[in-house]
Amino acid sequence: MISKYYLDNGFETIAFTDHTPQNHVIDPRQTIRMDSDQLEDYLTSIHHLKDQYKDQIKIHVGLEVEYLPELMGFYDRIKDRLDLMILGQHFVRRPDGELIVMGSEKLTDQDVDLYADLVVQAMDLGLVRIVAHPDYYMLNRTTFGPAQQKAARKICEASLRTGIPLEVNLLPPFKLNHGKLNQVTYPCKAFWQIAGEYGVPAVYGLDTHHLPQIDDVQASIQTARELLGTENLDRLHFVC
Ligand SMILES: [Zn+2]
């Protein structure tokens, strides 16, 4: 049924990238990701859809993962069953080991630096094909100071170096259009202005949490363009 929504809206290729499960609970937020024992069902069902719709739409089997060095063993074990992984870095770890989950807590400037380092490491390792919401560190923040600029530059430089595209996330623009958000802090115009300076490779990502987002894709892109500045987005190299 989900695939039919995409077909009706003219999509030719889609990638399912649910949040990866964690063998050990790192991110304590409830209902944000499948349990480890649901992974098998997830993979089987998307592979089944891929086969079922193969003459109509190309379906990629993927996961949205976070990077921490100790998670690499798990990713190595599952990567053969996936077409791609995308990075959605939702937490950082401070030097004392404390894990800061974005959205639950506000990041300090030091946390923003740690966030950028994790994103860059994941790209340099070739772990992921796309970086989802690279400006997620702007969640719950409206000021874009030197630390935020530095993080943007590090991430954009890594994107150019590795050729890994950065995603303009369309979920907040969708929510804004539907009155579910009053203000969009990410995607963040100041970040995408820097990304435009670098001319990084980019993609629009639906981040589909709600089916109406699929029908609404053009409206969400239009709102993103207004929020982030067409002059900035037109300098990016959209790869699909
Ligand atoms: Zn995400």
Oligomer: single chain
Question: What is the CATH third-level topology name?
Answer: TIM Barrel
- Along the chain, the helix and strand elements come as HEHEHEEEHEHEHHEHHHE
Specify the structural class: alpha/beta
Task: Compute the separation of the termini in Å.
Answer: 24 Å
E-strand count? 9
How many helices? The count is: 10
Biggest sheet, spatial arrangement of strands: 1-2-3-6
CATH class group: Alpha Beta
Radius of gyration: 17 Å
The CATH homologous superfamily name equals Metal-dependent hydrolases
Biggest pleated-sheet summary: 4 strands, parallel
Instruction: Tell me, briefly, the overall form.
Output: globular
Which kinds of small molecule does this entry bind, naming each only once?
zinc ion
Average pLDDT rating: 92
Q: In percent terms, what proportion of residues is strand?
A: 15-25%
Descriptive tags:
TIM Barrel; three-stranded parallel β-sheet
